[in-house]
Structure formats: C-alpha cells, structure tokens
Amino acid sequence: MALEDLTDPNAVLRSLDEFRALGQKQFLRKYGFGSSRGWMLIDTDGNEYDAKAIIGAAHGYQYPALGPLPQSGFYGGQPTARKLRELGFKVNEPAARRNPAWTRDELILALDLYMRHRPLFPDDKHPEVIELSTFLNRLAAITSTSPGGSFRNANGVAMKLQNFRRFDPSQRGKGLSRGSRSEAEVWAVFADDPERLRSAATAIRTAVPTLEHDPRNFPEGGVAEAEEGRILTRLHQVRERDYRLVERRKMMALRANGALHCEACRFNFSAKYGERGHGFIECHHAKPVSNLQPGEKTKLDDLILLCANCHRMIHSRRPWLSLEELRKIIILD
Ligand SMILES: [Zn+2]
Ligand SMILES: [Zn+2]
C-alpha cells in the first residue's frame, strides 16, 4: 500500500467530489489528516483542496479493499505534488513563509553534526548537511510539523550550524549573533556532555522509522517534552504503557510486598480507595531518555511503580526528575 500505487485520475476526482460535499474540515477529520499548510490541489474552477488528504482518500477509491492511505503512510509536500501532477492535476506550492522554529530534536541532531565536525563548519553542499536536511523533513512529517517548500533545506541546516558558533568558547566572536533561546538551552544541556548528545542523536535517528507508523500526537497526558526532544519523549511513553510488562511488574511487587506502594511517596491506592484502588498504580520507565535504544526490550527492572501524582511531578517540566530527586523534594507530613 503506497503512494506509487495510485494511478487512476478518476479516484482523485471522486475524492475532490467528496471534499466538496463534506467541506474541508469534515473531510480532513474523516481521513485523519491535518491541514497540509499550503500544498494545495487547484481544480479548474480555482478551488483549493489539501493535496495530501486528497491522495489518501483517492487511494481508497481506487482500491476499496485496501482503503485510504493514512497520513503517516506517505510523505506530503513534493512527493504528493509530483504524484498529482503526474495524474494531470495542478498543485500549488506553499507560499513562502516563515518556517516553524527548530524543535529540540532538530537542534540535538544539528548540534551533534556541529560537534562532530568542529572546528570545521560544513556548508550546504556537504553530504551530511544534505542528509540531515532530508532527515529533518522526514521527522517533521511524523510530528505533523507539516513543512513548506524550503523547510530545513541544506542552506537552513548549514546556517543553524553557524548559529551554534556563538556559544562555542573556541569560536569566540564568530558565527551568527542572532538565534533562539532553545539553541542556548540545547547547547547548555549537551555541549559538555558529548556522550549524552551522541546517544540522544542516535536514539532519535533510530526511533524515527518506528514512529513513522504511529500517527498520534505527542507528548500526551500532561507530560513535558524531555530535554532530548519529542521523539524520545514519545518512545519513553510507549515503553511505560506496555500493558503486559506493566502487569508483570505489578505482579512482581504484589508477590514481594502483598501490596502496591508508590516507590516515591509510599501511597497505596487500595488503602486509600478500598476495593476500587486495588491493583491500581502507574509505571514509570526509569531509564534515562538519552539511553533509550529503539528496538531494545524494556526490562522489568527499568520500571518503577509510582502513584499518579508522583508520576506527573516527574514529568511536569524539564528536566524530568529521577526517582531520587523526586524523593528528595517530597515534603513529608
Ligand atoms: Zn507517589
Ligand atoms: Zn514516566
């Protein structure tokens, strides 16, 4: 099931009909697409349709047994536009506009590239700069930062490397003077910790292919983005919501202690809530986020039991707390 399989212009016409009948908002909701922010199919009357969602729906019309393509199933932007043009439709590129600010994930990957080449600063012709540009577009696609035509192009990536120079003591007075606060933050967290930087960058890169099949937004549920960015925050959440593992971890504690206690504050749900609280507790994945290895199995030992309050406090802002740090701030009454 792929973008390439779509070959029937009539299937596209049928999704245009449906788009008109439902209206943009309903149509996007029905097929689970966000707005394509600028990549628009233009019909002969000059009406605009979100190009990516049209393709997704058209696939379902051409292959009813397979159904529509999901948003995460293919790339928007250029590939989508190319396909529609091939089928004889007109697609407008997004008007030039400011690209969204760089996210932590992106800055971590850029800083990693910077550190590996320092004191040289690869320009927009360098293969690694070009590779990172491509990768950032892929990353944006899964986190629905739906990009425009110039999004994180090689030139933008090369400029970002220059932005880091202003923090670099070995580059005093060089590089660009303007820049964002997140650049300073990412520099402060990672510049002196090459190992953490390397493993965060590697983990982000390895996690992306898995998350490309997971279209949900993240982070979810009152969780602040980790210092390592959105991708690894998501991976952390996926790990600690592994239902079977969580159940095994709870069984282990029940067998050992006869009860489930929060490992930070000792709260016991069944002591407080009786029958309703029986067997209730949350699991927190205690492995540092930058050490997460995509594909690696979660170990029971990596999970700690926490009451909902303590778990929320750990994740409530950056940096997340370790169990020890949380224990230290708990005020005992
Ligand atoms: Zn607690
Ligand atoms: Zn957690």
- The arrangement of helices and strands along the chain is HHEEHHEHHHHHHHHEEHH
Instruction: Enumerate how many helices there are, as a single number.
Output: 14
Could you tell me how far the N terminus lies from the C terminus, measured between alpha carbons in angstroms? Answer: 59 Å
List the quaternary state of the chains.
Answer: single chain
Q: What is the number of independent domains?
A: 3
**Coarse structural class:** mainly alpha
In short:
By secondary structure, this protein is mostly helical. It is 48% helix and 5% strand.
Structure explained in plain terms:
- The chain is mainly alpha-helical.
- It has 14 helices and five strands.
- Helix 1 packs across helix 3, helix 5 packs across helix 7 and helix 5 crosses helix 9.
- The chain is flat.
- The mean pLDDT is 87.
- Bound molecules: zinc ion (2 copies).
- One zinc ion binds next to strand 4 and helix 13.
